[in-house]
Amino acid sequence: MAKLSNLRNTKYKENRDTGFGQQVGQQGTRLILPNGNFNVVKIGIPLLERLSLFHALIKLTWPQFLGMVALVFILINIGFACIYYLIGPAQMGGLMSEKPVSFFLECFFFSCQTFATVGYGRVNPIGLGSGMVAAFEALIGVTSFALITGLLYGRFARPVEKILFSENILISPYREGKAYMFRVVNAYMNIITEARIQVMLSWVEEEGDKKVRKFYALALEREEVNFLVSTWTVVHPLEDSSPLKDISIEELTNRDLEIIILLKGFDDTISQTIHARHSYKYYEVIDNAKFLPSFYNENQKMVIRLDQLNAYEKLG
After folding, report:
1. What is the pLDDT of residues 226-274, one digit of tens each?
2. Confidence at residue 13, expressed as pLDDT on a 0 to 100 scale
3. For residues 67 and 70, what is the distance between their CA atoms, to the nearest angstrom?
4. What homologous superfamily is domain 2-40+161-314 in, according to CATH?
5. Cβ neighbour number for residue 189 with a 10 Å cutoff
6. What is the CA radius of gyration of the chain?
7. Cα 45 off chain centre by
8. Rounded-to-integer distance, Cα 283 and Cα 285, Å
9. How many Å apart are CA 98 and CA 208, to the nearest integer?
């Protein structure tokens, strides 16, 4: 407890611009999830008022997006096929079916052709009711494909990064002392320039009779690299100016430690700035360990093993 008391009396540069509050929630709650998303749920107003359909569709994975498009296409055409079926064959020309099931299938495929504005011409509306339904469906089809085109453009134009972080942050020997270290790598073959990283410490401190969450910027050996080509081992030396100096794993647990990482760089393939986020909790800190090499030279080329990004060994 003496170390904790001394730590509270030591003045470090506090970061008040994180966007997170100081109120302490449930012990063990993570501020940033391993996938980089914020661990936040917003309630209190109706779902439709706080939901952006465009953002929701843009953030879907490709299998989810394509599956949703196919499902909506099928459901819409089944709905219109039911309408044509109820209107009856008397208002549809060019039919070749005599059985109800075959008639419904012809209505379905006619709906698909109308929705996609293909119009092969064999089946066609000959009555006022079927003509009005077909015209309305064509309008919905044109509008839907325009929306899908816009969403596809937004998905392709959206900056997509594949920044990988090591699963653990290590306390490793560094020069004459120790340092906190983690690794980061760009998994894609695109070039990221002017990559810059910020590391913040978040933990709980006592102020009088209450607990508050404090944030401190951690000084790094190197905050920026010109090219993020190979793995980058980010190092926070445990010097006298570090709030983590001489703090044990047990104390990190008691303080609900979370180390927050913010990385940004310029992707010259799409000429846009990309961002990545990550965090480490106290249970992801490994004491007295070092990373194993993750790249080697072969045939005069540097080979980076992404599956070795997390590889480390314990010391002593």
Report:
1. 999 889 999 999 998 899 998 999 999 999 999 999 999 999 888 889 9
2. 66
3. 5
4. G protein-activated inward rectifier potassium channel 1 (2.60.40.1400)
5. 7
6. 29
7. 24
8. 6
9. 85
Cα separations in angstroms, 119 against 80, 86, 89, 114: 15, 21, 18, 6
Domain residue ranges in the chain = 2-40+161-314, 50-157
Residue 10 in tokens? 């030591």
Q: How many CA atoms lie within 13 A of 313 on its CB side?
A: 5
Answer yes or no: is pLDDT of 149 > 70.
yes
CATH of domain 50-157: 1.10.287.70
* Cα–Cα distance list, 197 to 7, 218, 278 (Å): 26, 11, 11
* Number of residues that this document lists for the chain: 316
Rounded to whole angstroms, the Cα distance separating 196 from 163 reads: 13
Q: For residue 291, give both structure tokens.
A: 């990373």
31: DSSP letter: S
Q: How far apart are CA 17 and CA 215, in angstroms?
A: 9
Which pLDDT score, from 0 to 100, does residue 8 have? 44
* Residue 221 CB coordination number (10 Å): 13
Q: Can you list the alpha helix ranges (DSSP code H) found in the chain? A: 2-9, 47-50, 53-59, 62-87, 100-115, 128-157, 249-254
